[in-house]
């Protein structure tokens, strides 16, 4: 009897536990869906066909809020379109800044960059018209300005990133740097679709026939601020400067009759080991010792990575190619005496998700992990700049035609002594600089590893920018202070100044 009673007590207790664990409807917190929707989520709704923005579609949202980026005073934006951008919090390092166009007719011209607006979009239509994804059917009375003078968010842009993910950039506001054109100087105007190259690829700027700055002359290079808008004919993204001041010429005039000195450009630093992947995130920093125009006088940059223990001697020197050397041709852009310029992969300071440094002078931004080297010299590589082991090096030549013994403008080598970099009368040519000499007395030694040319800098450290310092006298055309290796830790959020303005950075004098 006692056992039966205990059994019923256990069953009753279990039922009570289950019942107390259950919540009534009134025990749940009630929540109200947000009335706001982000551009990121709006753009996801479009799948190639018109979308009516009902509450069922938008998750009860009826309002899009954002900052105005359009300026119709320059008459270079599609009439009637109000461009706004916004972002939403989606996690650390996630890009959510997006732009979109709202078609409100002539009233679009009443708003200026920096206005903050709330726009009721319920039952409007999301569609692509004349190439532009836009929200149509919005009455001007549905637009409410809630603030003005808001600082605009600017999206870092390059041809490689914009063309790689055009949907992420459409309608966004930003600046593109080192935009190199091929103009008919003194004749060609900015009006129309003009192709430029920013070092990472070709893209177009578009200036309309009724723009009030259409008669400006097209320069060799410029800094372009504007909004990314697809071409109505091709659908390809174009950057559209809004007003005259959005288009800022940056090219310098270089007297082609002035001969190049022995070291017109020198190597000042390199980032060989970013945190995370090295693929497409390594870069080299240079300095001009005289004004340079690479259209007039093309240059070439090589990197050599001699990893491995069974390498043959490089019979073709810097042109050996394969996994040993990688070539970049510099054929556009200008750089002033004493200023830095860059060659490498993505225009980011410290690898994936780090600060965009497009504002630096990138004469070449080539995704070396995705493309072979120029002129077929060098295969795709995830490791352009070695960060351990055998001898690695960098050379810059004041020509695109490099032979086995052609002297570079400058060269440096680092890491170990191995790798078979010289032997049997072949190797990587050097120049006369602060580290190497082509003659030892009267004895020729044109290659690294030959004679007294044995100097190597240390192996680059992880997440550190190697800067070489030194002082170059442009009048005497020689180094007056020999370069020595230093390193500075570069964080993801570091600014450009951290690799250009540190104590002991390279200087050109006179």
Radius of gyration: 29 Å
> Can you tell me the overall shape?
elongated
Number of strands: 34
Mean pLDDT across all residues, rounded? Answer: 92
Number of domains: 3
**Broad structural category:** mainly beta
Largest sheet: 8 strands, mixed
Distance between the termini: 109 Å
Strand content: 25-35%
- Helix-residue proportion: under 10%
Q: How are the strands ordered across the major sheet?
A: 1-6-7-4-3-2-5-8
**Spans with pLDDT under 50 lasting ≥5 residues?**
1-29
Describe the structure.
- The chain has 510 residues and is mainly beta.
- It contains five helices and 34 strands.
- It folds into three domains: 39-147, OB fold (Dihydrolipoamide Acetyltransferase, E2P); 155-249, Nucleic acid-binding proteins (OB fold (Dihydrolipoamide Acetyltransferase, E2P)), CATH 2.40.50; 265-509, no CATH class.
- An eight-stranded mixed beta sheet has the order 1-6-7-4-3-2-5-8, with helices on one face.
- Strand 28 (439-440) and strand 29 (443-444) form a beta hairpin.
- The chain starts with a helix and ends with a strand.
